[in-house]
Amino acid sequence: MISHPAFNVEPWVVRECQLHLEVLAQAESVFALSNGHIGLRGNLDEGEPHGLPGTYLNSVYELRPLPYAEGGYGYPESGQTVINVTNGKLIRLLVDDEPFDVRYGTLRSHERVLDLRAGILTRTAEWVSPAGCAVRVTSTRLVSFTQRAVAAIWYEVEPVDGSARVVVQSELVANESLPDLGRDPRTTAALEAPLVMEENVVDSTAAAMVHRTRRSGLRVAAAMDHEVHAPGDTQISVSGVGDVARLTVAGLLHAGRPLRLVKFLAYGWSSQRSRPALHDQVVAAVAAARMRGWDGLVADQRDFLEQFWAGADVEVDGDAEVQQAVRFGMFHVLQAGARAEQRPIPAKGLTGPGYDGHVFWDTESFVLPTLTYTYPQAAADVLRWRQSTLPIAREHAVRLGLDGACFAWRTIAGEECSGYWPAGTAAFHINADIADAALRYVDATDDRGFERETALPLLVATARLWRSLGHHDLDGRFRIDGVTGPDEYSALADNNVYTNLMAARNMAAAAELVGQYADDAEALEVSPEEAASWRDAAAAIVIPYDHRLKVHPQAEAFTDHARWDFEHTKPEQYPLLLNFPYFDLYRKQVVKQADLVLALHLRGEAFTAEEKARNFAYYEPLTVRDSSLSASTQAVIAAEVGQLELAHDYLGEAALMDLGDLEHNTRDGLHIASLAGAWTALVAGLGGMRAGTTGAISFAPRLPSGISRLSFRLFYRSRRIAVSITPDAATYRLIDGLALPSAHHGVSIVIRDEPSTYPIPGIAPLPRPRQPPGREPVSRHVRGSED
After folding, report:
1. Of all residues in the chain, what percent carry a pLDDT higher than 70?
2. pLDDT in tens, 544-598
3. Which residues form the catalytic set?
4. Cα(344)–Cα(335) distance, integer angstroms
5. Residues 318, 320, 326, CA angle at the centre, nearest 5°?
6. Is beta strand 588-589 parallel, antiparallel or unpaired with respect to 562-563?
7. Phi-psi region of 259 (alpha: psi -120 to 50; beta: other; left: phi over 0)
8. Which helix (H) or strand (E) holds 562?
9. Which candidate in 247, 252, 430, 711 could, as Cys together with 361 as Cys, close a disulfide (CB 3.0–4.6 Å)?
10. CA–CA separation, 53 vs 47, rounded Å?
11. Neighbouring-strand partners of residue 692
12. How does 504-543 read in b/e, with b if 16+ C-beta sit within 10 Å?
């Protein structure tokens, strides 16, 4: 976890036992609550102190300028940035006229607990005001999985002894002042006070506010209502002025007789609906929440998560940190997409403003595979959102002189927001990544309606892109030149292996689908000749191979480049992009994140076992992991080639990316793809699970010495499967559904209701590959022995 004694390692909760302001911003990300529609950072109830205030609605953004030193044709002129919308978390407290502020007086105790099974964040504090009055404050917060527009807070305050005059102020506040994030001044100006008030109305214990964004033209509504349980004589008032609506509760409290307040919140937004319609929408959502009541919302939350964990839990014996971290990660992955409902999953989810709230390729390549096997409806929703942006992607392709559709490298609403084209527009692989995610979802669910209505249009549009982007050379080989693969320390390369293999699958699968859905293909104006051209291109794709080294170069001529001078690179010079020019990085053998190694995972059938081992050994000393996306992929292939201890080390890095703040930027939000990757490292890595496009699932499990048992559950084709692995054997069981043909280490098996156990074959140990000096992953074997 974040290197601090305030945090405990526990299997089902994340507990902060003391409040340390130096890691407050990181803790706000860790304790963020979301359901994919609403995101509340884990700010303190009273609002201050804070690291970074944050309340987000999925896809609510403001436009900002994209400055260029020199312009160019096709460069996007404006970007999209997630904004902090109306804050409904605020509950301020005054005790005998002294504001409750942990920076003043004496904080006797403070604890926050994120319960991963209940889906709630609980805070307890005992504070003595500067005047000597001691109070106990307890709050519990949730963002509902079952009522999409709703969040709620249960708040209680009571004197520890004696009596106290107490005032509680529950607020809605728009256009909060934010700390300087080091943005370009033009961007800061564009994002300052982005919400223009249209309505602020109050009534009894309720309030509603409607705003619109200045430039993007989105309308945002927030509403609150309260239940107040107060002993004795209490005064309650409500007011709304400007960007603030406030309920005030004032009373005299005595020890043992607390004041309790339940705050119901609702949020909505639209680019088309009117102010009255959006007002009524959030007022109705609050009314539904009040009808269900606090206890009902809590019960619904627990029931929802009980069902989720029944099909998604992972048990890790022997490494308590990874056990906690993988559940923490899965909880946040679920939060990022559970109720997104045809909206994207940003790289940070709704936990912070990092990367401007943009969605990238890692959603399809890292997050959706995890959701596909644990909560598949969320994966389908994201892909339907991608489908909804096809008109924008087609326009983008036209600007680039290409056919089909070219999806944005980074975006919120579909338009390209990357101002650096060598690592943005040129990274065309995102189009194949989207196609791959659609194919994986169809394979895992056998959802033929989705295949016809969503996968087919996506695959046709992206196949057309690849066919126009590449060309057949004089030898008939199909080349894709001048593109950027997953490794962002290489750019504009010819025949990137990952890109070519993924594009080939994209085109071949599109041709196959066109044959299955002839009428729909005709509506998309796909001719038999066009589909044949996709098949021909896929079959003739160039896959570079270095016969001297007996490895695949990441792209043509990559293995001819000079190696980076790792020996003279200082630890403080990582990440390299912040300390060296891209010009130097682009022409050297240095890898920011798994690229060829990712191809070994996602297109594993294209390589022999020997090729995988040789490729992995070659790229390990070149890969610096300056991206949080790398460790999980390296864990998967390390496990496959028999480097089990190294796989465990990379698993730990992926899982602890945010609980350990390994990239030193957790303050800006969590790394959702790395958290999802921890599940992949366990299930596809140590569990050896492989599935994707063939309608079959297989396993080849092996455990490192530091893990004595690994168990996981997943969904596949209307079945729920349980797998339990020990060092010597693996047991498979069908929780529900029909018997499922599968394979265990290449041997055909059938998974049935009754558990079946199979021995795990041994594997010859190989020399552990080196990593760049100072970039070795932390050993889990040493840490595991300390647990």
Report:
1. 97
2. 999 999 999 999 999 999 999 999 999 999 999 999 999 999 999 999 999 999 9
3. 488
4. 12
5. 110
6. parallel
7. beta
8. strand 562-563
9. 430
10. 8
11. none
12. bbbbbbbbebbeebeebbeeeebeeebbebbbebbebbbe
